[in-house]
Design goal:
The complex is a heterodimer of chains A (613) and B (105). Chain A has 613 residues and is an alpha+beta fold. Helices cover 20% and strands 30% of the residues of chain A. Chain A contains 8 helices and 33 strands. In chain A, the strands form 9 sheets. Chain A has a 4-stranded antiparallel β-sheet with strand order 4-33-32-31, with helices on one face. In chain A, helix 1 packs across helix 2 and helix 6 packs across helix 7. Chain A is elongated, with a radius of gyration of 59 Å. The termini of chain A are far apart. The relative contact order of chain A is 0.07. The N terminus of chain A is likely disordered. Chain B is globular, with a radius of gyration of 15 Å. Chain B is built from 3 helices and 5 strands, in the order H-E-H-H-E-E-E-E. Chain B has 105 residues and is α+β, with helices and mostly antiparallel strands. In chain B, helix 2 runs antiparallel to helix 3. Chain B has a 4-stranded antiparallel β-sheet, with helices on one face. The chains are: A alpha+beta (613), B alpha+beta (105). Chains A and B meet through strand 3 and helix 4 of A and helix 1, strand 1, strand 3, strand 4 and strand 5 of B. Strand 3 of chain A pairs antiparallel with strand 3 of chain B, so a sheet runs across the interface. Chain B: InterPro entries: DLC_sf (IPR037177), Dynein_light_chain_typ-1/2 (IPR001372). Chain B: Consists of at least two heavy chains and a number of intermediate and light chains. Chain B: Its main location: cytoplasm.
Chain lengths: 613, 105
């Protein structure tokens, strides 16, 4: 009823309004209430769904999420990285992809095989442990017998125990046990040292059998034809690995054992100074030294005591002197000088034993480049030094401001003591002068000889003739002097610096000189006054300088040392050791007197010449 | 006098019976002592069964010193054997038993 409705509306609103007015006024209540009661019916919106009751009661669940349902699922954004438009993947749970079915008919297989190393069988058979047989019988009577025996033994030992003190027995047992255990543990070499040494020597002699035969028996037959010239037959060569780089600086034969000699090793090179070694070789065993001692500083000289052949005194490059005792063969010297006890400040060039002094103390002299000649005495296991002489260079003493006398000190390089006149000795210096000195005068020399132009390398008194001595020097000359005359008797120029000279012990006219060009010269004044009767290169390589030479006191051999650390032993051929020829019927006198007379004759010739001039 | 002496001897002899008397051995000292003790133990344990005693000794020696050991225990036998050097022990025990132990693989 459309026309009614607007009326109704109006009436409702009016009703409401009237209600209000009613509230205010309260007079027109009855009329408004009726209209209001009529307008309580529900009003439907025009677009409302028409649903049945059942449908209305249906419940619908709604889930609220944070996602925006209106946002598109597939946003495409431009990605600068990929430079294209890429569909962004949104965080939606995806379903696992379905697996691709592999095509069983359409794939290829790849395989490869590396080389297998071929197999090889390896067998080894150990030596089976050694076996032996053993046999015995076990019977009742044997067992009984054995037990009875044991009983008896035990009774005996009990009696012995009662006799001896039990303590001693225990000690004995302990010692025995220790001995047995020690013996089984220790090296067997110590037991067989003696035997091993003998075997070693035998093996060496077998190896060098021909050399040993030569040494004893070979006499160069060619000497008869060789008109007074002689040869040196090389025998053994001694060298040791440890001393390989070190030059031989000193040689000395042992006064008691004629086959034993000492070799001192060191270095003559000022720049390359290293350690030193003292080796003692025996001719019976050329392959290895008998004794080896090593030292920190190079050994420059050595000497063996006449009466105590086991004492070797050694002078070092650093100025120390040391005494080695061969009876105690550990590597340390028995006595040693030190800076405190007055060692030299420069290398010690020569040492020589002297006779025991009045208190029976051992005594030796040493000469060194620091210009001092020092006498050392072994007092109660300490070395005490006494300056015997200082080598002042003559004419160089000057007065300093405070009245002290300054002098330059000459450097001593060699000395030798007179064989008979004990207090007299000669000193050779680096300046080329030789001074004759006395042990008793410490400030003055008895005599001076202007010997050489360069350093004097060795001086040596003649073993027979008391007046004659010899000197050699790096100025290529060897000079023979009479100590009463200022000029030399004989001068020999050897074309190369002379390292060492030595008189032969069997003749007063024979001597040997060695030079740096590897040659050994042997002179016999009674045969040839002007030339060597033997002039032989001794060392293999030409660069090898020979440094020292020594005659063996008994056998006709010499040892020659070079700067590579080798010592060569040479045999003198018969021409070199000629005794004066026996005239028929005339007795040949042998002995020192003859030797002296021989040399005297020669000297007289020379002196006559000189006096004539 | 004779009787007392005889009794004394018997007494001493009986004392010695349990003392193992080594007749011949070339084993090192330690090994020898160990083996001796082992034999004594075995013989005392199996005093009426030589075979078990020998078995015990042999197995222990095999374990301790390596294979392979041989053991003979008895009262009357003679033997000739080849043994590895330093691996033989021949001893008497108990007044009537003799034990011979050697190694030979």
């Amino acid at each position: 009823m459309p026309p009614k409705q607007p009326l109704r509306r109006q009436s409702v609103s009016v009703g409401r309004g009237t209600r209000k007015r009613d509230e205010d006024s309260g007079t027109e209540v009855a009329e408004g209430a009726d209209e209001w009661a009529q307008s309580k019916a529900t009003v439907r919106p025009p677009d409302q769904l028409e649903l049945t009751d059942a449908e209305l009661k249906e419940e619908f669940t709604r889930i609220l999420t944070a996602n925006n349902p209106h946002a598109p699922q597939n946003i495409v954004r431009y990605s600068f990285k990929a430079a294209e438009k890429v569909a962004e993947e949104l965080m939606t749970p995806k379903q696992p992809k379905e697996r691709k079915l592999t095509n069983k008919f359409n794939f290829s297989e790849r395989a490869s095989q590396t080389f297998n190393n071929p197999l090889r069988d390896r067998e080894c058979q150990m030596e089976p442990p050694p076996r032996t047989n053993f046999s015995a019988t076990a019977n009742q009577w044997e067992i009984y017998d054995a037990y009875v025996e044991e009983l008896e033994k035990q009774e005996k030992t009990k009696e012995k125990e009662k006799a001896k003190t039990p303590v001693a027995k225990k000690m004995g047992k302990m010692a025995m046990r220790k001995m047995t255990s020690m013996e089984s543990q220790s090296d067997d070499i110590t037991k067989v040292t003696q035997a091993a040494k003998i075997v070693e020597r035998m093996v060496n002699q077998n190896t060098y059998d021909d050399v040993a035969q030569d040494f004893k028996y070979y006499e160069d037959a060619a000497d008869e034809y060789r008109d007074q010239e002689g040869t040196l037959l090389p025998l053994w060569k001694f060298q040791n690995d440890k001393a390989k780089r070190l030059a031989v600086t000193a040689l000395c034969w042992n006064p008691k054992y004629n086959d034993l000699f000492a070799v001192g090793h060191g270095s003559y090179d000022f720049m390359k100074q290293s350690r030193g070694m003292l080796l003692l070789y025996s001719m019976k065993n050329p392959s290895f030294p008998e004794y080896i001692f090593s030292s920190e500083s190079g050994i420059m000289c050595l000497d063996m005591h006449m009466d105590h052949p086991y004492l070797v005194v050694v002078g070092h490059y650093d100025g120390n002197v040391a005494i080695y005792n061969l009876k105690k063969p550990h590597s340390q010297p028995s006595f040693r000088s030190s800076a405190k006890s007055g060692k030299h400040t420069d290398p010690v060039w020569q040492v020589k034993w002297q006779k025991d002094d009045m208190d029976n103390n051992l005594n030796f002299f040493s000469v060194s480049s620091d210009g001092r000649i020092v006498s050392w005495t072994l007092v109660k296991s300490e070395l005490v030094h006494t300056d015997v002489i200082k080598l002042k260079v003559e004419g160089s003493t000057t007065e300093s401001l405070e009245g002290l006398q300054l002098y330059t000190v000459g450097c001593g390089t060699a000395f030798d003591f007179h064989k008979e006149i004990d207090y007299m000795f000669l000193v050779g210096t680096e300046e080329g002068k030789i001074y004759k000195c006395s042990k008793s005068y410490s400030s003055q020399f008895l005599d001076t000889y202007d010997a050489h132009n360069m350093a004097v390398d060795a001086v040596s008194w003649n073993p027979y003739h008391t007046k004659v001595f010899m000197s050699c020097s790096s100025d290529w000359t060897v000079k023979i002097w009479d100590h009463t005359i200022k000029t030399p008797m004989f001068i020999y120029d050897l074309n190369s610096a002379v390292g060492d000279v030595a008189w032969a012990p069997y003749s007063s006219t024979v001597f040997a000189a060695v030079t740096t060009n590897g040659k050994t010269h042997v002179f016999d004044l009674s045969i040839n006054k002007y030339e060597a009767i033997c002039n032989q290169p001794v060392v293999a390589k030409k660069k090898n300088k020979i440094t020292h030479v020594q005659f063996n006191p008994i056998h006709p051999i010499i040892i020659v040392g070079d700067d590579r650390g080798h010592v060569t032993c040479l045999k003198l051929s018969p021409n070199l050791r000629k005794m004066p020829k026996e005239k028929k019927g005339q007795e040949v006198q042998k002995g020192p007197a003859v030797e002296i007379a021989k040399l005297d004759k020669l000297l007289n010739l020379v002196r006559e010449v000189k006096t004539k001039i | 006098m004779g009787e007392t002496e005889g009794k004394k001897d018997e007494a001493d002899y009986k004392r010695l019976q349990t003392f193992p008397l080594v007749r011949h051995s070339d084993m090192p000292e330690e090994m020898r002592v160990e083996t001796m003790e082992l034999c004594v133990t075995a013989c005392e344990k199996f005093s009426n069964n030589n075979e078990s005693a020998a078995k015990m000794i042999k197995e222990t020696m095999d374990r301790k010193f390596g294979s392979s050991w041989h053991v003979v225990i008895g009262e009357g036998f003679g033997f000739e054997i080849t043994h590895e050097v330093k691996n033989l022990l021949y001893l008497y025990f108990g007044g009537a038993l003799a034990v011979c132990v050697w190694k030979c693989s």
